[in-house]
Amino acid sequence: MTSEPEVLFARRGEAGIITLNRPRALNALTHAMVREIHPRLRAWAEDPGITRVVLKASGERAFCAGGDIRVVYELGRAGRHDDAIAFWHDEYLLNAYIGAYPKPYVSLIDGICMGGGFGLSAHGTYRVAGERYLFAMPEVNIGLFPDVGGTHVLPRIPRARGVYLALTGARIKAADAFAAGLATHAVPSDRFAALEDALCEGGMVAAVLSGFHQDPGPAPLDAQDALITDVFGRTDLYDILARLDALAAQGGEDGAFAAAAAKSMRAACPTSLAIAMEQMRRGPGLDLAGCLVTEFRIVNRVARGHDFYEGVRAVLVDKDNAPRWDPAQIDAVDAATISAHFAPLEHDLPLSAGAAGA
């Protein structure tokens, strides 16, 4: 019996279409998929018959729920750290290429979009959210950090909402994503097929998307806009948590929101939180390539540490949701240890990184 390809490629009219095709695995991104997508994008970039690329996914549950972390976990547990890191190496290079793609790149996102799915879509030209859209970057909950360009995108979201998402792993739907700029358009799910047809027919991509866009309505996070801006606009983890605790003690709607955010942060990996906070500080001063080079430095250290494997064990393997972090408390995280995660490698990611706007 022949297994289904993990990713499908097609040409329709003026569009090159990529379909993530692992619906039973929530279209989790594998190393093999990364190695197929990158050269196909390069070929389409040189093909004058292709004027835009459309990225979509099979099934209704997920666009892409992340990278195939379970495989990376098994490689690392077997001592094959270089093989595990090779996945991130190639994934980050693909993320960078998408960010510099010379043609309109449209992601049709309906369902779960996390981690690797964010990396495949966030750096492209357009991101269309359907009614089932559900976004999160929950990496701090498994001893990882918001990578695949999260260092670039999240701190640039206005009013500290990206910092909030990075530190809490909170889930948001289409309205919040559109308000934050994570989605450029919102289209009803039952209009996705017609939108794809219209994109394949040609015409100006921006005009086609505008013709299908429907206002997704008010963003729920707007209700806590002042709180998020105040709390997550701070640059110190202890300061953020202290403010959340103070607000929680006051009760009310804001107090409940603050208490939930603080609870999420305290359940996360302390070292991951500190890394994420440092990413949010450094990210605005780096271009996308610089952010990905930085993330590759971090992941090299994380993949050879303890917390990532413990987090995956607790959440995805044993599913006891009782990770034993080391250190276990935020106040025990050593600043020098965090800085060391950001230090250059002997073999950095081969990208021309520079300052933001360079």
TrEMBL record:
UniProt EC number: 3.1.2.4
CDD domains in the record: crotonase-like
Substrates-to-products reaction catalysed: 3-hydroxy-2-methylpropanoyl-CoA + H2O = 3-hydroxy-2-methylpropanoate + CoA + H(+)
Boundaries of every Enoyl-CoA hydratase/isomerase domain copy: 16-342
Keyword Kinase: no
Superkingdom of the organism of origin: Bacteria
InterPro entries in alphabetical order: ClpP/crotonase-like_dom_sf, ECH_dom, HIBYL-CoA-H
A Gene Ontology biological process term: L-valine catabolic process
Gene Ontology cellular-component terms listed: cytosol
One MF annotation (Gene Ontology) recorded for this entry: 3-hydroxyisobutyryl-CoA hydrolase activity
Keywords linked to the UniProt accession: Hydrolase
Top EC class of this enzyme: hydrolase
Listed name of the protein: 3-hydroxyisobutyryl-CoA hydrolase
Species for this entry: Aquabacter spiritensis
